[in-house]
Design brief:
This protein has about 100 residues and is α/β, with parallel strands linked by helices. The chain contains two helices and six strands; from the N terminus they run H-E-E-E-E-E-E-H. The protein has helices at about 1-10, 90-95, and strands spanning about 15-20, 25-30, 40-45, 55-65, 70-80, 85-90. It has a four-stranded mixed beta sheet, with no helix packed on it. The protein has a two-stranded parallel sheet with strand order 1-6. A hairpin with a 2-residue loop joins strand 4 (about 55-65) and strand 5. The longest helix has 9 residues, at about 1-10.
Length: about 100
């Protein structure tokens, strides 16, 4: 759509968040988003929509800020090799935020 096209032109691709209803976890690919990084005690993988497996490097909380409002996403997975930053609609609601 035109709005999505404008968003891509005005935002850095690594800063765009894709809100999806089909993921059960928040996932980010850039470490700069995380307030602190907690390494996993046991290695874990996440499967993406194209049926590939990707290693999860860290878990942490991420602070969001938009139009003067702030929210904290809990237990966000740091998956460096995913192509897009994914936000789970289900978890947004569970964490007391709105889409």
């Amino acid at each position: 759509t035109k709005a999505q096209s404008e968003l891509k032109h005005t935002s850095k691709p690594e800063e765009v968040l894709y809100v999806v209803s089909t993921t059960s976890n928040h996932m980010k690919n850039h470490v700069k988003w995380f307030s602190s990084l907690e390494k996993l005690e046991q290695p874990r993988l996440v499967e993406t929509g194209d049926n590939t497996m990707h290693p999860i490097k860290h878990v942490s909380d991420v602070l969001l800020s938009h139009v003067g409002q702030k929210g904290l996403m809990w237990n966000v997975l740091h998956v460096p090799i995913i192509a897009k930053n994914l936000v789970s609609v289900i978890l947004i609601f569970d964490q007391g935020m709105q889409v």
